[in-house]
What does this fold into?
Amino acid sequence: MQFIDLKSQYALIKDQVNKGIDGVLEHGRYVFGPEIEELEAKLAEFVGVKHAIACSSGTDALVMPLMAWGIGPGDAVFTTPFSFVATAEVIALVGATPVFVDIDEKTYNIDPVKLEKEIERVKTEGELNPKAIIPVDLFGLPAELHKIEAIAERHGLKLLEDAAQGFGGSLDGKRACAFGDAAATSFFPAKPLGCYGDGGAVFTNDDDLKAKLLSIRVHGMSETERYDNVRIGLNARMDSIQAAILLAKLELFDGELVKRNKVASRYSANLGNSVVTPFVPGGYYSCWAQYSVLAKDSKNRDELRNKLQEQGIPTAIYYPIPLHLQTAYAYLGYKEGDMPVCEKVGTKIFSLPMHPYLTDEEIDKICEVIKS
Ligand SMILES: Cc1ncc(COP(=O)(O)O)c(C=O)c1O
It folds into this structure.
């Protein structure tokens, strides 16, 4: 059994993918081929925003808006400690200070009440300038983005939605990637919409931000003078081949979202109370980047994972070490106990196989092993 089955998907879209790749090889515009603009238009339309800017990874999609907003040393950016490292890394990369805020115990996303308290604490302390919030749509479930938008507005902060795992989800009918001042997603192969390498995109309704992102994507180039670079940028372009692959995969994506939701519902119905199954609040639609459950404790988690492994069922732990306790972030001075909810969840959580092509028999077998 596969944790994520990309081969079954490839079998379905082989012709379109190969045709797309052949097209790039024929026209030869490997960088900024016509596939890039076509993909950007389709992504923007899917999400319901004015602009999508394709780029080289989810990490670059996160760092580019921070660069465009001039966030840097002395600035505080608030985020969750329960995420992939890139969420905090981009804050440190621009020289700003990550300020972690504990998560909600049911959704595992940043807790808006604690977020506002932390913003007020940092303001009162006066050592750092609060500048932005990066909530994460963890495992595909949108963060409490309506509340966080209101908090960002009250405190004059930029809101950058980290939807690396969230593309395809929605909240009250508004798609993930459409919230805040900008949003970032990842097209890493294992993501709900993945390419065959690295890729990402930034989404925004802000024309001025779009212009800056296009410049940053190519070394800070000027819009008018080709060899005059007007700001510090990156090489953050997406390859035409990856765009061609994503165009083929987008055709399947809506159907795959429905299938992912069916898989998740069957898991949740079958697992009952044997583990804590994921909580999806009313109005939220998850794209199920992961289906993660809580065991009773870390010993019970090891037992369950071993039993599943014996039956050839792979599992994974996202995330065993919260970001505030990782070695690279020790300089921030956090210690064990600072983010109690996140730390506790981290000892019990593990993820089951999740992809649109899991069969009912496979799901039932996984549930049986866990329940027995
Ligand atoms: C929450 C989150 N943010 C950012 C990233 C970074 O994306 P990429 O691997 O495309 O750079 C990931 C990817 O795993 C992620 O899960």
